[in-house]
Every structure is written in structure tokens, then in C-alpha cells.
Amino acid sequence: MTLSEILEAYRAGELDQSATETAITGRFFQDLGHSTVDTDRSRRTGNHEVIYGEFKTPSQIADLVAVMHGADKNADGTSNTQNVLVTRTNAEAFAAVKAVAPDAVFHPEARLISSIRLPVPEKSTQVAVVTAGTSDIPVAEEAAITAEFFGSPVLRINDVGVAGVHRLLARTEEIRSARVVIVVAGMEGALPSVVGGLVDKPVIAVPTSVGYGASFSGITALLGMLNSCASGVSVVNIDNGFGAGFLANMINGL
User: Fold this and answer.
1) Would you say residue 178 has pLDDT above 90?
2) Average pLDDT in the 127-146 region?
3) DSSP conformational letter for 198
4) Which CATH fold would you assign to the domain 127-252?
5) How far is 4 from 16, CA to CA, in rounded Å?
6) Fewest Cβ atoms closer than 10 Å to its Cβ: which of 90, 101, 211, 246?
């Protein structure tokens, strides 16, 4: 119900004061004790809340999924059903989620759980997700599946790092066909600069924690990407595939 509908129901005597207060509050958030679900985020930003799963217990994640799918109704009986994405999660949490959302899917490489109950219009243009090495694929998959969850088709191009730049050059025209490019790299993090010099599209650089000691768990790649001399390259945090996929989808929808 909209706020106007809630107030009209109160005026008509269909909701008492307590139920009306609860319904109005529920338009903005629901307090579960361990978490507070932002039920107003879609209205404000165009996309529902996403559950960050790391350090949450399986039961906490399942509670959140149940509310976001509308298993727990608002005081006025309306449902909160929405598509659900859980990031940084595991098989144990997935087992708990399956109990409240049997249609949920676990993406183990990306450490994501998705459950889609509402249609997602597919965008006409695509996002390219490019990795420097095979070891970067888990972060790249987090980005790719996130973009797909929100309706962006994804072109995956793996293992085309600067150690064998001819591999990248052989795929350049494919990459140029995308509306936005996510480039995922560890080690020294050079690939986004190279891609940024070859394409006329926005490049979102994702440093990964892949690399030997002096990579400092991704800090070297992060600093290299932040200091890129290629125009049109932006950078997200280390291993933040979700952030890259979410932003790429927003750009792809403009």
C-alpha cells in the first residue's frame, strides 16, 4: 500500500491506529532485531536492498530473505516480494535460504545466492567483464552475476592479461561492442589501463587480492589502477565484484 492508501484505510476505519503506525513504518523499514530491512530503498534508488552475507549467520540471512520475499507480511496484509541477491555467502547459508526460498540458486564461485520472483527486463546493450587471469574469475563472476541479476547481458572474456597482450588484442572488437567494461586484475593491476587505451567506453577497474607478497593482497593493484593514465577508468575496492557489477548495470541502463 502507498502512504495515501494507508491513510485512507485509517480514515475509513479499516486500520486502527496501531496497525496504521506499523504499516507506515513498514513502508520504510522492518526491524528484525538482528537486522533492519530497508524496504524503501527501491523507491529512493530504483533497486532493492542487497544482503551482504559475510559474517551473518545462516538463520539471519534466511530471515532477511523471508522478509524480502514477503513471507512476513506488512501489518496491512500486503507483501514485500522482491528479487533477492545475497553476496559473500556460502553453502551453509544457502541451505537455510532454501528452506524459505526453494527457488533460490547458489553460485559457489561468485559466493552469491539469487532468488528471482519478479520479471527483470533485459537491457538491449551488454556489459563486458574482462579478467587478467583465471585466478581473477571468482571476483569477475561476482560482478557478472550481479549485472545479470539487474538485467544486463554479460560478455565474459577471461585470461587476457598483459603478460600475453596479444590475447587481449584478439578480443578487442568484442570488448568494444559493450556499453561498459569491467576489468578485473590482480598482481600489478595493469590491464585496466591497457583496456582503457583501446576502447571508447567507461572502464570499471576491479583490483583483486591475487598475487605474490609485494602485491600486498591487492593494494598494489588498487594503487596502480588509481594512478592509471588512461582516461575513463574508475576504480572500486579490492575484490569488490558486486560494486563493479552494480555500477556497470546502472551505466548500462542510462
Assistant:
1) yes
2) 98
3) T
4) Rossmann fold (3.40.50)
5) 15
6) 90
Collapsing DSSP to helix, strand or coil, 183 comes out as strand
C-beta of residue 9 within 8 angstroms of C-beta of residue 15: yes
In 89-136, where does DSSP find H-type helix?
91-100
For residue 56, the one-letter residue type is K
Backbone phi, psi, residue 226, to 5°? -65, -25
Q: Which three cell numbers stand for residue 26?
A: 513498514
CB 235 within 8 A of CB 222: yes
Query: Angle CA(103)–CA(109)–CA(115) in degrees, nearest 5?
Result: 20
The Cα-based distances of 212 to 42, 161, 217 in angstroms read 41, 16, 8
| Polymer length of the chain | 254
**Biggest distance spanned by C-alpha atoms of the chain:** 72
Q: What average pLDDT does the chain have? A: 91
Parse the chain into domains and list their residue ranges. Answer: 3-115, 127-252
Q: Please give the model's pTM, rounded to 2 decimal places.
A: 0.88
Tell me which DSSP letter residue 124 carries: S
Q: What share of the chain is helix, strand, coil (3-state, %, to 5)?
A: 40, 15, 45
- What distance in Å separates the CA atoms of residue 241 and residue 248, rounded to the nearest whole number? 10
Q: Residue 7: how many CB atoms within 10 A of its CB?
A: 15
Helix/strand/coil for 240: coil
pLDDT in tens, 25-41: 777 887 889 988 887 78
